[in-house]
Amino acid sequence: MLIVGITSHTTSSHISRAVLEAVCHQTNAILEAIRLDCPHLPPLTSLKVDGGMSCSDVTMQIQADICGLEIIRSEMHETTSLGTAIASGFAVGVWKDIQDVKDCINNSKKTVDTIFNRRISNDQASIMKKRWEKAVKMSKGWSNDEE
Fold first, then answer.
1. Residue 65, class by beta-carbon neighbours within 10 Å (0-12 exposed, 13-18 middle, 19+ buried)?
2. Can you give the pTM of this predicted structure?
3. What is the pLDDT of residues 92-135, one digit of tens each?
């Protein structure tokens, strides 16, 4: 890991924000790689998110600002765990079929998804991306495997 741009005025809040931005930039880089590798896919307009970091409104807003996509956070933040529980339920006979699962989920849903949209201009997003790419480029070669 490399943190660049630290000054005597840098606080732990700045570093925390930088970590969140880094995760969001890396996610965007993966999405861009997918776009390049799979040009036949339709362009993304939204991204559904889950997991621990998705609980952070700040992180999800940063993701929307960087990606320029609608970020949709489900009320269920841990869908991987839910999927595991559903698969286990099928294995032990809790569910007869997929409709049982859908009915259970639909009956328990009480709130709506949270949606985050870009709040910055395309120019601001472009500047953020260029700064990120510059930092990544500058970080290459700092680690020497021979040492």
1. buried
2. 0.81
3. 998 888 898 888 877 776 667 899 999 999 999 999 999 999 98
How far the first Cα of the chain sits from its last, in Å, is: 17
| Continuous segment of H or E residues that includes residue 65 | helix 57-67
Q: Which residues of 53-62 are buried (b: 16+ CB within 10 A; e: fewer)?
A: ebeeeebbbb
Q: How many angstroms separate the CA atoms of 65 and 39, rounded?
A: 23
Q: Where are the domains positioned within the chain?
A: 12-75+111-139
Here the tokens at position 77 are 């933040």
State the Cα–Cα distance between residues 15 and 20, nearest whole angstrom: 9
CB-CB neighbours of 41 under 10 Å: 9
Q: Does domain 12-75+111-139 have CATH number 3.40.1710.10?
A: no
Q: What is residue 72's three-state secondary structure?
A: strand
For 48, residues 6+ apart whose C-beta sits below 8 A from its C-beta are 72, 73, 74
Contacts of 51 (CB under 8 A, 6+ apart): 77, 78, 80
